[in-house]
Write a structure and sequence with these properties.
Length: 145
Amino acid sequence: MSDRDALADLTAEYARCVDRGDPEGVAACFAPDGVLRIVNLAEGGKVVAERTGRDEIVRAISRMSYDATFHFVGQQQVDIDGDTATGETYCIAHHLTIPDDGTPATDYIMFIRYQNQFVRLDEGWRFAVRELNIDWTETRLAEAV
């Protein structure tokens, strides 16, 4: 498998693990001291959250309170330099909330550009830093099935 394919698989695995509610799987996509950072570009590049290390990432992902998520990963550009790489990945992430009170479900949609720093470890390529940049969001009514 080429390095580009391995990096694409890593980004797909991250999305799959988030959508399957697998915090340990998400954390395994990171280097042991990897960083997951969320930046809101609509708020002038404000860092909304930053988690360092697999344990912190597991705790953060475990606290997600949506009924379901669906990450659609788009194009990815990477620059590889030996055992490190940088790149940008586009994503549209849907976050479904189904209220208990009978009101309509909502879909909170995030339009994301991930800024990635990758590192090759013995276990394969991992995120050294994954910065989730939110370009904009939308909230829509949804029909939960």
